[in-house]
Amino acid sequence: MSEPFEPKIVAFVCTYCTYAGADLAGTSRIKYAPNVRIVRLPCTGRISPMFILKALQKGADGVLVSGCHPGDCHFAQGNYHARRRWTVFRSLLSFTGIPEERIKFSWVSAAEGAKFAELINDVTEQIRDLGPFEQYQELQKVIETQSSY
Amino acid sequence: MGIQEQYRIEAAELLSSGAVKLVIGYGQGSTPDRRRPVFIRSAEESKQLLLDSYCVANLSGYLVPEGLLSDGKSVGVFLKPDGIRSVNILTAEAQVNPDQVVIFGFDIENGNTKPLSGRKAIDFAPLIESMKSTGLSPELQHEADRLEQMSASERFEYWKAQFAKCIKCYACRQVCPMCYCRRCIVDVNQPQWVNTSSHTLGNFEWNIVRAFHLAGRCVACGGCDRACPVNIPLRLINHRMSKEALDAFDHFAGESADQKPVLATFRQDDPETFIL
Predict the structure, then answer these.
(1) ipTM of this predicted complex?
(2) Which of A72, A128, B84, B100 has the greatest CB tally within 10 Å of its CB?
């Protein structure tokens, strides 16, 4: 019997808001889905689209990107810049056939521990419904099995 | 007097008076229907210059090499409207000084070349403004619409088949006037973001990254599309990015020299329909 599918989700979060929000969820003893691997970065402006591609390349079924609400950025403008970048990157991924539903973006502040937990649960359920990102992962398997590369 | 003759004379005059130190134009290529860039440094050489409907390459990329403009002298260059837009972008990104660029403007209409009046990029502003509404050719528009109507997984299969052909020759990068980074992200190996061998996954990543870096910068000169030895429809993916920049941020690449690069600026009321 095969094991039920557990999605792997990588979350790129900014240290000042969403990571603190995740911390609050933890200290408040709010339980949320364990499928998410959090990567803490200084700011959403630091999140390069390369990170998202790398996460997918390494077998993530979904990616979550989260930071401070507009106006709350520790560096004043990082999240505004990030927002533009995501708008463009999201449409690019969609155009190349990578489903938009697998890449999620959100704003979670340091005070929103409950929102963070709820967000992770929602995203996990949505990715679970979509199933593993086999289309992409098959390409990676080809590399791993063909020694000529 | 044809435009070719006219521009040869003007180039010779500018060179002999010392107004420009170099003229970058088109010369005879390896076959009768190909044109190759020529670099003219003296009035006598200016008779090598050709100008006809085969002159399609965007020569603005030849302005960027380090040291070319550092002596403060001017350079003449043959440019179509798309090339003039590229010069505006290069100016906005602090890669060229527009005062040092003397433009020999021309356009190709129904196989005929016609001169464009003006010598500096700013002289062409009304022309560029009028280009904002021109879209893709009907065939490409049809293909773009067909792709938009596909489901995500169909589109994935389409691009998988296209990118599987890629041999990572990077001709698309070399030909692009916007790809002037001294160290391209694919040449970075600590960390290795993009696989260098040409398997489909690495090709996917390379082509996504290339298109992303051209978002709001591509002027649709079509150089990458022509350079691609395996005919990947790069124009479609570039056009999708330009469309996004125009729709979401009202950004038309190369509209003026003081336009901020689209991803290096923001407005507080930028759209954010997708953020949870």
Answers:
(1) 0.89
(2) B84
